[in-house]
Every structure is written in structure tokens, then in C-alpha cells.
Write a structure and sequence with these properties.
This protein has 6 helices and 13 strands. By secondary structure, it is of the alpha/beta class. It binds benzoic acid and fe (iii) ion.
Length: 288
């Protein structure tokens, strides 16, 4: 096309897409460019604003490394990561939620009833539940990968004071699908905000806080792997999670119980002297 105008440029672009291109590639790329062009037309995007956008992408690339994923963080705070998740969730299964960048694979095994709190201060949280399939049957031998921050709001990979697998555990559930562990009550914390994504958050008048949560990855043969989180219903950031990870079925009540009701047979049995918190979180996995 020789005479490209602001009104026909989108059609011209579509015409440049080769008929031999993979059909899904044509669909995704065509839609992306159509929305990009509409966005520029709709906002009457200026050169300065366009340059600011390019500088943002360059800034993300400059700080990107093996353990710092600024582009993923950008996708998280724009709601894209959560939207993609929700587009592909199974309604009959437990909702998925964001993975985040702080999971360390290869965590040491955590026995059923084991403890992740160790010497850390803060309220003991006892978590238990059953992993089931969509028909409600327990999934024997499902694997539960658990991680969270320390009470200082930092993950092991962010904090020199913690060892590699601090507040990480890998549990294999029993024949009854049950899991159970103790930890310290998670705290709310901020996502990394010292890079270009932090600048976008401030420019939009947004904060970088996430409500407190426990992360799970649950795997079982014949089932879809579930990446999810559990949130307490009284968290002040529940309605304003900066990465849009909260779903109704992931919000749980943490019940306070006297130390005398702490169950026997767990790693911390006999050692809990203060009131503790208790949450039951059952999980349904979708079939593969
Ligand atoms: C997290 O929950 O660990 C997390 C999720 C998204 C971005 C940053 C952190
Ligand atoms: Fe997290």
C-alpha cells in the first residue's frame, strides 16, 4: 500500500501478515496490533508519550536478569497475568492465582504435620486440608509445594538472613488426601517497586502492597497442576491487591484457638504456649 493513512494503517498491517503464517499467530498478532493502533488513535498518543512507553520497556530490559523479572512484574501489576490465569481456569476446581517470582524449586520434604516456622517469632498458624478431584475423592500422594515470606515480609531469595529454603516445604499428602503443617502467620508485603514498574505504580497513584498469603503449587498425576494462594479474610489489602490475585474461594477465616486445643501428633505439639491460628483450606484439582 502506497498511501498509508491513520485510518487505513491497521488494515495495511493486516494485509502484510502472510497467508502462510500460522493461523493462531495471525489471530494474536492481528488483534494485538489492532488494539495497539486503536489505543494510539483513541488517546491521540503524542511523541513524548510514545517515547515514555518505549523508555519504560527499555528500563524493564535493563534490570531484567535471571532472578529479576521486571516484565513479568509489569504484567502482574497491569492485571494481565491474572487475566490470562482466569481465562484458563476450570470452574469446578479451586481458583488459581499468581505464581510470583519468589518460588524456589527443590524445597526439602516437609512431613505431614511438619513445621516451617522454626525459630521465627509471630503467631503460630496451623494449616490443614484435603486435596480432592472434581468428583470429591481424595487424591492420594498429591504433592504440595508451599512457600511464603518470613515475618519481615521478605522471601528467602530476597533476604540474606534466610537460608535458601526458609519458609519453603514440599509435602506429599497421605492416602486420605490430607495435608497439615504449621508456620508463622504470613504478613502483607510490597512487590519490588524500585524499578520501572514501581515508577508506573507511583505515576498511577497506586501502592505496591499485596495482602498476606501462603503460596501453593499442587501436582498430582492425571490432574492439572494448580498454582494458587490462600488469603485471610481480615487482611487490609484484600480488596486492593496490587497484582489482582485475590479470588473469593481463596479467602479463608483464620480462627484463633487457645494453646490447649493445639492437636497432638504434630511437630509443634507440646511446644505451643500462646493462642494459635487455625485455617482449613481444601483444594479441588481439575482433571488433566
Ligand atoms: C508474590 O506473591 O510472591 C508476588 C506476585 C507477583 C509479583 C510479585 C510477588
Ligand atoms: Fe507472595
Amino acid at each position: 500500500m502506497r498511501s498509508v493513512t491513520k485510518d487505513n494503517i491497521t488494515d495495511v498491517f493486516m494485509g502484510y501478515l502472510s497467508q502462510d503464517t500460522d493461523p493462531r499467530m495471525r489471530e494474536v498478532m492481528g488483534s494485538l496490533v489492532r488494539h495497539l493502533h486503536d489505543f494510539a488513535r483513541e488517546t491521540n498518543l503524542t511523541h513524548d508519550e510514545w517515547r515514555t512507553g518505549i523508555a519504560f520497556l527499555e528500563g524493564c530490559a535493563a534490570v531484567e536478569s535471571e532472578d529479576h523479572h521486571e516484565f513479568v512484574l509489569a504484567s502482574d501489576v497491569l492485571g494481565l497475568s491474572s487475566l490470562v490465569d482466569m481465562l484458563h481456569s476450570t470452574p469446578s476446581a479451586t481458583s488459581s492465582s499468581v505464581l510470583g517470582p519468589f518460588h524456589v524449586s527443590g524445597a526439602p520434604p516437609l512431613e505431614i504435620g511438619g513445621d516451617m516456622k522454626r525459630h521465627y517469632g509471630g503467631p503460630v498458624l496451623l494449616v490443614e486440608g484435603t486435596i480432592r478431584d472434581e468428583a470429591g475423592n481424595p487424591i492420594a500422594g498429591a504433592e504440595l509445594d508451599i512457600w511464603q515470606t518470613a515475618p519481615n515480609g521478605m522471601y528467602a531469595s530476597q533476604d540474606e538472613e534466610q537460608d535458601t529454603y526458609s519458609f519453603h516445604g514440599l509435602m506429599t499428602v497421605g492416602d486420605d488426601g490430607r495435608y497439615c503443617f504449621t508456620t508463622v502467620k504470613p504478613v502483607e508485603y510490597t512487590v519490588p517497586s524500585d524499578g520501572p514498574v514501581g515508577d508506573i505504580l507511583s505515576a498511577c497513584g497506586r501502592h505496591p502492597w499485596r495482602p498476606s498469603h501462603l503460596h501453593y503449587i499442587i501436582k498430582a498425576p492425571g490432574h492439572r497442576t494448580l498454582v494458587t494462594e490462600i488469603f485471610p479474610e481480615d487482611d487490609p489489602y484484600l480488596d486492593q491487591d496490587t497484582v489482582f490475585g485475590v479470588r473469593d474461594d481463596l479467602v479463608m477465616t483464620y480462627h484463633q484457638k487457645p494453646a490447649s486445643e493445639f492437636p497432638d501428633g504434630l511437630a509443634l505439639s507440646g511446644k505451643v504456649t500462646e493462642p494459635f491460628l487455625y485455617v482449613e483450606f481444601d483444594v479441588t484439582l481439575a482433571s488433566a
